[in-house]
């Protein structure tokens, strides 16, 4: 018989408790200024399979691929760069982002890596129909996409709400995962005060809040950043978060799971299932994810051999707050764990 978990929350450090409430209030006020500075939003562009995206001097390709899921198929949008014969790196974004969160990494890494920056289900140009939005369910559907693409071994890099999906994907894929760059998400320690967004996403007003993409993106980035973010990155983030259907699809994740459930799953079974080295990637000044929670001396001992932690001198959104540092750290990790790319055999795919 299943019993209630007896795990204990960790009290946040005093420096975090003192700023929890005032930070959001200040962000809401400052977001109004950012919205005005950003100007009119550009309509979300709609891509076709094979469309070209120029990232500096790198040519990337928009892909739209159907893969098994929700008792039929799920359509995925992702941006692909690099040669398929090179080791594969898969990138998963968070909220309120899209594949664009990783464009600096694609530009820098595609000369020696096969890169896939995927729009999560419900985001960007991926499928937004109702269906399975449990973290484990979406992870299973992502695994089916990788099978469809004949991807064998790969390195996974995630940020924010892409990490709970990544946690299940890494557990399910076993030896196919060469390394897991797990970014900016709760892990072993948790406290209910550190995930206020859960109640916002469960509220009836959530779709209306998310539907104002400029204001929502501006508020979140103002609240959780420590360093400036380039205007072009904010504008493209708003654009990619403006696709029809996102405002109703994203809350389904929060109705299908909870931060507590994710935490219990990690502590009772997921972490012990990970086989590949894990690099924890965190921003030192994130208001909701205290750096002290990731500098616990015992934490690395719970992770597979070769695991480590890197703390950026940033807030929550280090892919945009410190793009060069992000690229450098991610590239070093990939170089350490990746091997020559392997594709799946012609037989039945194995998860």
From TrEMBL:
InterPro entries referenced in this protein's UniProt entry, alphabetically: AB_hydrolase_1, AB_hydrolase_fold, AB_hydrolase_sf, Epox_hydrolase-like
SUPFAM superfamilies per record: alpha/beta-Hydrolases
Cross-referenced Gene3D superfamilies: alpha/beta hydrolase
Domain AB hydrolase-1: 87-178
Keyword Hydrolase: yes
Molecular function terms, GO-annotated: hydrolase activity
Superkingdom of origin organism: Bacteria
Keywords for the protein's UniProt record, in alphabetical order: Hydrolase
Keyword flag Hydrolase: yes
Protein name (Swiss-Prot/TrEMBL): Alpha/beta hydrolase
Organism: Mycobacterium lacus
Taxonomic lineage from the root: Bacteria, Bacillati, Actinomycetota, Actinomycetes, Mycobacteriales
């Amino acid at each position: 018989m299943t019993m209630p978990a007896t795990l204990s929350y960790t009290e946040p450090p005093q420096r975090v408790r003192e700023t929890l409430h005032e930070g959001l209030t200040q962000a809401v006020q400052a977001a109004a200024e950012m919205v005005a500075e950003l100007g009119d939003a550009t309509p979300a562009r709609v891509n076709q399979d094979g469309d070209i995206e120029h990232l500096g001097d790198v040519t990337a390709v928009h892909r739209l691929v159907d893969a098994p899921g929700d008792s039929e198929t799920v359509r995925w949008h992702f941006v692909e760069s690099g040669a398929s014969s090179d080791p594969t790196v898969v990138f998963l974004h968070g909220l309120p982002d899209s594949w664009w969160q990783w464009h600096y990494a694609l530009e820098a890494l595609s000369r020696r890596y096969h890169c896939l920056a995927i729009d999560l289900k419900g985001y960007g140009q991926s499928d937004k129909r109702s269906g399975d939005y449990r973290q484990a369910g979406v992870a299973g559907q992502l695994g089916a996409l990788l099978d469809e693409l004949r991807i064998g071994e790969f390195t996974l890099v995630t940020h924010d709400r892409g990490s709970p999906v990544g946690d299940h994907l890494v557990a399910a894929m076993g030896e196919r995962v060469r390394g897991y760059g797990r970014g900016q998400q709760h892990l072993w320690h948790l406290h209910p005060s550190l995930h206020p967004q859960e109640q916002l996403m469960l509220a009836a007003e959530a779709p209306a809040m998310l539907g104002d993409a400029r204001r929502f993106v501006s508020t979140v980035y103002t609240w959780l950043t420590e360093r400036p973010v380039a205007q072009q990155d904010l504008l493209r983030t708003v654009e990619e978060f403006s696709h029809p259907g996102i405002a109703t699809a994203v809350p389904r994740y929060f109705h299908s799971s909870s931060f507590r459930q994710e935490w219990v799953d990690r502590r009772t079974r997921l972490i012990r299932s990970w086989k590949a080295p894990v690099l924890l990637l965190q921003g030192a000044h994130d208001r909701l994810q205290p750096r002290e929670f990731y500098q616990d001396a015992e934490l690395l001992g719970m992770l597979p051999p070769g695991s480590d932690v890197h703390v950026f001198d940033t807030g929550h959104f280090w892919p945009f707050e410190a793009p060069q540092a992000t690229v450098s750290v991610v590239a070093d990790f990939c170089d350490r764990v990746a091997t020559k790319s392997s594709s799946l055999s012609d037989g039945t795919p194995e998860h």
